[in-house]
Amino acid sequence: MRWKQSCAHEQRFRFVEDWKQNEWNFAELCDRYEVSRKTGYKWLERYQAEGLEGLRERSRAPLWHPNQVVLEVEEAVVWARDLHPHWGPEKLKVFLAREAPEVIWPAASTIGVILAREGLVVPRKRRRPAVASAVVGVVEARGPNAVWSVDFKGWFRCECGTRCDPLTISDGFSRFVLRCQALRGEKTALVRPLFQASFQEHGLPDRMRSDNGPPFAATGLGGLSELAVWWIKLGIYPERIPPGRPGHNGRHERMHRVLKEETAQPPAADLRAQQERFDRFRREYNYERPHEALGMKVPADLYVPSPRVYPSRLPEVEYPAGYEVRRVGRCGTMRWASGKVFVSKVLAGETVGLEAVADGCWRLWFSFYELGEFDERQMVIRSVRRKPIGGRCVSGQQPEVQP
Fold it and tell me: Percent of the chain at pLDDT above 70?
């Protein structure tokens, strides 16, 4: 025979219908449906209050549990997200703990659940992870001002149509953003005053890391530009990443992504309004935004100005005893024996040093920066070929030179 099947909702409905007919007293009715009188009265109360909807199965989850986040905390999380719409749960937790340390804030995962429930999370598209290179051609920053990174964030136009070229400078160790300036181009005349102001405010770094484009580098001997020559005279080693490898300056590029999200989508009305956004971003990035790589500290907690102050006058370039010293003329040439050898136009008026390495072969230096090898028999200078090995750029048997 087929078994009779019925759901709990149907059993409650039949219980109520039998109760309405008054054919049994309440105790007999409960015995017939094998429920206690307490349960029977509960069903009748729900039916009288809500009708048939009151007889449906209800959730057995507790109305409150000890780990439940109170409404005030959820509202604070939403407020913090509105204040910093691009911050994730980890950063928001640190921010809230800093604002109200007396409150026991939920875990970052719980904050993420709250944000998702409120519709404040936009899932990112998953990308195939890039294969990390085993060779690194740049020096790791071991302390503040060991390496500064500089680059232009890709240009865009403000609402008024004015072109904006954001120049950014950051400290590689602490991630402290030293400059974020809206310019109208990438010329040396526009860039150099900003570096001078940064050097006067923060001191001089040991190295300046950049890509291979102007105004930071050029195609001439040693890749030197006017800006790089000035850096070397100040005792700053110009460090350039391998061409087409922006990941070698990944910390700076990561900051650029945040800069674009928070200040240029969409752009401001004009260049002045855009600069106001950059200034707000720089204050927040340096003094408020915690960083996972810094142990959830802010860059200002780790950055200190450099003890190397900006000089009022550029020092003269000096070379060790035994070097042959030549001055580069206006046309970029130096005299050797009875002839002239082209060096570089950006070194016009500067002195270069020649270190004897073999018969008729000299190593050419500008201050501590190696330019190439000079063959006096052929009267030519061959550029030095630098290749990344073990974390630093080397060339031939050249020892590591510190500025």
Answer: 86
HSE-up of 358 (CA within 13 Å, CB side)?
6
Query: Does any domain span residue 214?
Result: yes
Reference 366, options 262, 272, 226; nearest CA is: 226
The answer as to whether 365 is a domain residue is yes
Assess contact for 212 and 177: CB atoms under 8 A: no
What pLDDT is stored for residue 105 in this prediction? 85
pLDDT band with cut points at 50, 70 and 90 for residue 206: very high
Co-location of 89 and 190 in the same domain:
no
Condensed to tens digits (0 to 9), the pLDDT of residues 157-169 reads 999 999 999 999 9
Give the model's confidence band at 2: pLDDT under 50 very low, under 70 low, under 90 confident, else very high.
Answer: very low
Q: Tell me: do 38 and 106 sit in the same domain.
A: no
In this structure, is residue 140 part of a structural domain? no
201 within domain boundaries:
yes
Query: Is the pLDDT assigned to residue 34 strictly greater than 80?
Result: yes
Tell me phi and psi for residue 27, to 5 degrees.
-65, -40
- For 270-277, which contacts have Cβ atoms below 8 Å and span 24 or more sequence positions? 270/158, 270/159, 270/160, 270/162, 271/158, 271/162, 271/164, 271/182, 271/184, 273/158, 274/158, 274/164, 274/182, 275/181, 275/182
Domain count along the chain: 4
State how far the Cα of 193 lies from the Cα of 216, in Å rounded to an integer: 14
Section 341-352 average pLDDT:
94
Are 166 and 268 in the same domain?
A: yes
Is there a single domain that holds both residue 252 and residue 185? yes
Q: Which two tokens stand for residue 13?
A: 């409905």
138 neighbors 239 (Cβ within 8 angstroms):
yes
Give me the CATH number covering residue 220.
3.30.420.10
pTM of the entire structure?
A: 0.69
Strand partners, 183: 165
